[in-house]
User: Which sequence fits this backbone?
């Protein structure tokens, strides 16, 4: 099937083709016609499957067909600044041929430019929950005319403690609206929220819930905690390690790894919550353009990095929440490409490894590297 057969406006189809896409992904093929029909929707799809376009294209289609207003008629809520910026960039690209006004609203930067943008009149607002509520509390944004609302990465909002904020945002919306929820996994708390706030939603599920995409090759190395840094440095010297994303559990560990690896011949930088928004944006841009080949990140970046060509994701620390493993490794093998997920597991992380293997439904293969004995 081609995008032109999904029922989208010609201006949107042209923009998608200009962006280099001609054939919709499975989640786009199933979700877009339902959303165009005005249905409430639950999209359960892994990262890298094209779900951003699956909700943006029908949202832009609906906004372009309606009457302009002083207040926003479309709202996308995302858990992180990086993801908000990513969605905002895609909205600008796909809406290039439409007379729609959009803005990205998130914390970590000044409110005044955002306030001016909101007051100038917008069709679409893309926002993180906290900053959106800040503007709402100051009466700088009115959500009473929202026709369609999207909650992207809903499970991540639960993980990050945003569920009360999400409920407050929902309380500010009109009762009559279209609701689109997209998520990689569907915890009970999110499913309950969806059922309470939607009207007979249709479930679009293109992969087994919480299962990594099959194109990702997974391996775990059993190593002592004290030798993890050495093993990582050794792995990064292998020729097949191209653009590599390394996840740590803490900001301090991310900074330590940058210092350890900066003389390894790799171009390394860290991204985490203590970095300013400008620093995080520069790091992501450098990684996206290939000037940085190793990005060390905490889980704040797990949903906000949309970079084609990541060859490896490395779990330097195993996540405490097994679903985060799915979110992390979903940064590779995007849009049909292959990729590898490497985990370094110390003996004290055996419970986390067992939980991950229960979630993905298989034993992750064990790997070995000469000079690094397996630690049971």
Assistant:
């Amino acid at each position: 099937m081609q995008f032109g057969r999904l029922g989208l406006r010609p201006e949107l189809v042209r923009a998608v083709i200009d962006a280099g896409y001609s054939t919709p992904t499975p989640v786009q093929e199933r979700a877009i016609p339902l959303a165009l029909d005005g249905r409430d929707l639950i999209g359960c799809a892994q990262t890298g499957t094209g779900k951003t376009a699956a909700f943006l294209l029908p949202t832009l289609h609906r906004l372009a067909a309606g009457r302009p207003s002083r207040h926003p008629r479309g709202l996308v809520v995302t858990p992180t600044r990086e993801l908000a910026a990513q969605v905002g960039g895609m909205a600008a690209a796909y809406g290039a041929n439409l007379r729609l006004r959009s803005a990205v609203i998130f914390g970590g930067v000044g409110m005044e430019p955002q306030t001016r943008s909101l007051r100038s009149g917008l069709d679409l607002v893309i926002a993180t929950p906290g900053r959106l509520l800040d503007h709402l509390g100051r009466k700088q944004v009115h959500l009473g005319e929202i026709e369609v609302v999207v909650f992207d990465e809903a499970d991540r909002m639960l993980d990050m403690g945003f569920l009360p904020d999400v409920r407050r945002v929902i309380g500010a919306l009109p009762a009559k609206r279209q609701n689109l929820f997209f998520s990689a996994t569907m915890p009970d708390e999110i499913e309950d929220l969806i059922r309470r706030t939607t009207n007979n939603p249709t479930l679009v599920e293109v992969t087994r819930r919480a299962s990594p995409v099959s194109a990702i090759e997974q391996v775990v190395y059993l190593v002592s905690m004290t030798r993890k840094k050495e093993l990582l440095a050794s792995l990064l010297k292998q020729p097949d390690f191209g653009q590599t994303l390394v996840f740590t559990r803490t900001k301090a560990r991310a900074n330590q790894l940058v210092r350890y690896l900066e003389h390894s011949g790799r171009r390394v930088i860290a991204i985490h919550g203590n970095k300013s928004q400008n620093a995080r944006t520069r790091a992501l841009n450098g990684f996206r353009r290939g000037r940085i080949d190793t990005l060390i990140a905490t889980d704040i970046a797990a949903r906000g990095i949309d970079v084609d060509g990541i060859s490896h994701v490395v779990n330097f620390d195993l996540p405490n929440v097994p679903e985060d493993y799915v979110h992390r490794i979903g940064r590779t093998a995007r849009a049909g490409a292959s990729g590898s997920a490497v985990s370094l597991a110390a003996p004290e992380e055996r419970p986390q490894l067992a939980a991950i293997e229960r979630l993905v439904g298989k034993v992750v293969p064990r790997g070995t590297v000469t000079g690094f004995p397996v630690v049971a």
The CA atoms of residues 133 and 344 lie 39 Å apart. The mean pLDDT is 89. DSSP finds 14 helices and 13 strands in the chain.
